[in-house]
Design brief:
This protein has ten helices and 13 strands. With 342 residues, the chain is α+β, with helices and mostly antiparallel strands. It folds into two domains: 9-149, PurM-like, N-terminal domain (60s Ribosomal Protein L30, Chain: A), CATH 3.30.1330; 161-332, Phosphoribosyl-aminoimidazole Synthetase, Chain A, domain 2. Strand 2 (38-42) and strand 3 (45-55) form a beta hairpin. Helix 2 (62-78) runs parallel beside helix 3 (99-115), helix 2 (62-78) runs parallel beside helix 6 and helix 6 runs antiparallel to helix 9. The longest helix has 18 residues, at 324-341. The relative contact order is 0.16.
């Protein structure tokens, strides 16, 4: 198991999964590999819920850091096809965070919530000794809809077309370029281009646009493990074969340059904001057009067939396991601390 990031599947299966509290009939979807949300039946309606840690990165500026933190936690409910609507949040803040910094962060966080129709309904905010940036709490997102409207990552069917919006590596590219502009080793103009990718990390509007445009049978966001990991999870969950043409996948400016500089594979790194979808053939053009109309680079990149596993350009691909961005982050942070001591 990697020391950083999500625990591996073996540890989850042996420690977490066997003990999940009470066995309740109203839990219609509990913890499932490759699915980042759960579903509770409430009087015939589906209550979709997901929980994530909150990361606030001061180097982004506190208002932008608040917006980014919320976009990350909203994504898991958004890919269910049910719009996120309610939020409970806990901030466990470092003692050095000032009132003005908290106000700026909250303005960004709550402002972004308002933009996508999400209401904060409860929470807890406090400063505690021993807490440091960037992991400063957690949030639970809720969305209410029809059980029939839920889109699961494992719902792809043979014949569906595979669609990618935004492309690989955008999150890591945007974040690292903001956090470590001096350590990456790229010219200032390329760093500036890479920094623009942080704007690509919002997923709610893309997920809703896709589901409103046509019959989307499966959706997933490309977080830890990147688009390779997400496609593998989708294919395995559907017991189907995914064939992907790498040349068809959109790649935003700055991604390849930064990932090459850090010797990491953009297909293997976290990219919140990147939408992967399986779409019924009759509706794929409408879904692609809906995303492109939002300004999101989008393409049909492959298809679902009988079989199993992910194939990229004809070669079988496996889940990358540990996300290489964690190791790259640690190296960049050490270099930045070394530069600060000079």
């Amino acid at each position: 198991m990697s020391d950083l990031g999500k625990i591996d599947r073996e540890l989850f299966d042996t420690v977490i999964y066997p003990e999940l509290g009470a066995d309740r009939e109203d839990v219609t979807l509990g913890p499932t590999h490759g699915i980042d949300f759960g579903v509770i039946d409430v009087g015939g309606d589906a209550l979709v819920t997901a929980t994530d840690p909150l990361s606030v990165l001061p180097d982004l500026g506190f208002e932008r850091a608040g917006r980014f933190a919320l976009d990350v936690v909203l994504a898991d409910v958004a890919v269910s096809g049910v719009p996120p609507s309610h939020l409970s949040v806990t901030f466990t803040l470092p003692p050095e965070m000032s009132d003005d910094e908290l106000a700026a962060m909250w303005h960004g966080f709550a402002g972004r919530a308002g933009e996508v129709g999400v209401s904060v309904v409860t929470g807890h905010t406090a400063r505690y000794a021993g807490v440091d940036y960037s992991w400063v709490g957690g949030a639970t997102v809720l969305g209410v809809g029809s059980h029939d409207d839920i889109v699961r990552p494992d719902g792809a069917r043979p014949g569906d077309k595979l669609v990618v919006g935004t492309g690989p590596g955008a999150e890591v590219t945007g974040l690292f370029a903001h956090l470590f502009p001096e350590q990456i080793g790229l010219p200032p103009d390329r760093i500036a281009t890479a920094q623009e990718r942080l704007a690509d990390t919002a997923l709610v509007e893309d997920a809703m646009a896709a589901t409103n445009a046509g019959n989307v049978t499966a959706m997933h966001d490309a977080t830890e493990g990147g688009i390779t990991g997400a496609f593998v999870e989708m294919a395995d969950g559907a017991s189907a074969r995914f064939d992907v043409d790498s040349e068809a996948v959109p790649v935003a400016e700055g991604v390849d340059a930064l990932c090459d500089a850090l010797d990491i594979d953009p297909w293997h790194v976290s990219s919140c904001g990147t939408l992967l979808a399986a779409v019924a053939p009759a509706d794929v053009d409408d879904v692609v057009d809906a995303l492109r109309d939002r300004g999101t680079p989008t393409a049909v990149v492959g298809e679902v067939t009988d079989g199993e596993g992910l194939y990229v350009d004809g070669a079988r691909r496996s889940h990358p396991g540990a996300d290489p961005s964690w190791e790259a982050f640690a190296s960049l942070q050490a270099a930045a601390e070394g530069d600060a001591d000079k």
